[in-house]
Design a protein that fits this description.
Helix 5 links the parallel strand 5 and strand 6. The chain has one domain: Rossmann fold (3-Layer(aba) Sandwich), CATH 3.40.50.720. It has a 7-stranded parallel beta sheet, sandwiched between helices. Helix content is 50%, strand content 14%. By secondary structure, the chain is of the alpha/beta class. It is built from 10 helices and 7 strands.
């Protein structure tokens, strides 16, 4: 039987990137708290498996195929949900991707794909959900940024660019939305134990070797989702974790020389595993 929660019970929650990883776990925990969850993803097979895990044992969930890079697809998801349920209480803009490697090795297509999925995927969600929430007079938009949206780590530049943009855009949205009764949360996690890390495939380097260079412990996905939902429940604007995210953001802003040393070390380590034959 689903456990009820005053913040999420009977609420309509849309979660993009819901077929796997953090999106799937957010869906599971929201459903367990009594929410009705619309899981959206481009991966239809994965969506089916995710929904099967949630319903009917732990709550209610509905799968919807969506391409977050396609404005019309996102319009259909958001407006279709509002039409079906009469409202949208929460939008979790969670879908994301990354390409890891040095800037000199990246293609324009790789840059464009990451920006389209991460940044424009969230812009599309906001564009269609925000007017609905304004008419309602309530709602909560949860935008997935990253610790890399607060402190620009190297070797992941398209991701960093998209997440810095999301971090800034979301603060602007929060300021504007407040008067309409709409809350905005910006999620800035560190390394979470999901397929994005487990299946790491950097450009011109070995994924296992690079994963071994990650200097911190991965946050279990279930714990990450609990932290996020606890912050959303409190209507926290910035939900950043673990503690090293705050530390690196502080160093980047106030002691840039130390942050530069940290970045230089990461680059030096990566260049030891970078494919020599493909070096430019």
């Amino acid at each position: 039987m689903a456990m009820k929660d005053t913040a999420f019970s009977e609420k309509v929650c849309v979660v993009t990137g819901g077929a796997s990883g953090l999106g799937k776990e957010l869906g599971k925990q929201l459903a367990a708290l009594g929410a009705f969850v619309v899981l959206a993803d481009i991966n239809e097979a994965g969506l089916g498996r995710a929904v099967a895990e949630i319903s009917p044992s732990s709550g209610k969930a509905k799968p919807v195929r969506v391409d977050v890079t396609d404005a019309e697809s996102m319009r259909s998801l958001v407006e279709g949900t509002a039409a079906a349920f009469g409202r949208i209480d929460y939008l979790f803009n969670n879908a994301g991707t990354a390409v890891v490697g040095e800037i000199r090795d990246l293609t324009l297509a790789q840059w464009r794909h990451v920006i389209e999925v991460n940044l424009f995927g969230e812009i599309h969600g906001i564009h269609y959900a925000y007017p609905i929430m304004r008419r309602q007079g309530f709602g909560h938009i949860v935008n997935m940024a990253s610790g890399f949206g607060m402190a620009p780590g190297p070797l992941n530049s398209p991701y960093v660019a998209s997440k810095f943009a999301i971090f800034g855009m979301s603060h602007a949205l929060a300021a504007e939305a407040r008067a309409f009764g709409i809350s905005v949360s910006i999620v800035c996690p560190g390394y979470i134990d999901t397929a994005m890390i487990g299946e790491l495939s950097p450009v011109n380097a070995d994924g296992k070797a690079m994963k071994a260079q990650i200097p911190v412990k991965l946050v279990p996905v279930a714990r990450a989702a609990r932290i996020i939902l606890a912050g959303v429940k409190r209507k926290q604007v910035v939900i950043a974790f673990p503690a090293y995210v705050h530390m690196l953001a502080f160093l980047h802003r106030f002691i840039p020389s130390l942050f530069a040393r940290f970045s230089a070390r990461q680059i030096s380590q990566f260049r030891k595993i970078r494919n020599v034959e493909k070096r430019l």
